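hi! just following up on the protien thing from before. the input was this:
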Amino acid sequence: CFEREVNFASNLLRSVRQDLTDIQAVCDGSKKQTNDTRDLLNNLSKGITPPTWKKYRVPPRISAMQWMSDFVARLKQLDKLATLTTNEGVQSLRSVQIWLGGLFTPEAYLTATRQCAAQSLQVSLEELIMHVQMLDQPSQIDSNKQNIFLITGLKLQGASCRNNALFYSSAIIDDIPLLAIEWKMPTDPALSQKKEQSTRSGQANTSEFHFYERGVAVLASALE
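and the predicted 3d structure came back as:
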C-alpha cells in the first residue's frame, strides 16, 4: 500500500518538477515556448491548478497554491513513513499515526489494514468487522490489543465527539484528535448474521448513532 503511494508520489513529483523547469527555461529565454508550456503558464498565472497535476482526487476548483501546499504535506508524510521503514522496519508502520486524507488512495490503506489483521488472526477478510474508537491521545489505547491502526487529521461535520460518543453540535466542524481502527471477529452471533445480511444486500451496517434529518460526515481532508 505505502509502496504504491511512494511510487505514485515520485512520478507525480517528477512531472511537476519538469513542468516548472520548462516554465523557468521559457521565461529566461533558453527554451522555446510550446503548447504545453503555454497552457501551464496560462493556468498558473490565473492561480488555476494545471489539469495534468490533478492525478488524484481533489476539489475541482482547488487553486494552484492550495494544491501545492496539499501536495507538499502529502510528500512530507510519505517521506516520514519511508524513513521510519528504513530505520525500524515495515512492522513499525503498524503503530504510526496515519493522516488518511493525505494518502492518494485512502481506501487502499483501509483494505490493507483489514488484510493485515486477517493474516494475523488467520481468518478471511469477510469474517472481520471494523471497530472504531475516538480518542484524545495514544495513551488511551490498550497496549495488549493487536490489529489496531491509528488515523489522525479527521474532522467531524455537523456533530461533536466527546469520550468516544457523538453529540449534536452547533459548530460546523469539530476535530477528531485520533481515531483507532480495530478489526475483530464478531462475538455476538446476531451481529455476525446481521453482517452477512448487510454484505449480501450491499448495504453498510447501521450505526448505533442515529442523526435523522441532519447532515453529519467525517472528513479526511480539510480541502474545499
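The helical segments are 2-27, 35-45, 64-88, 106-121, 189-201.
Confidence is low (pLDDT under 50) at residues 190-208.
cheers
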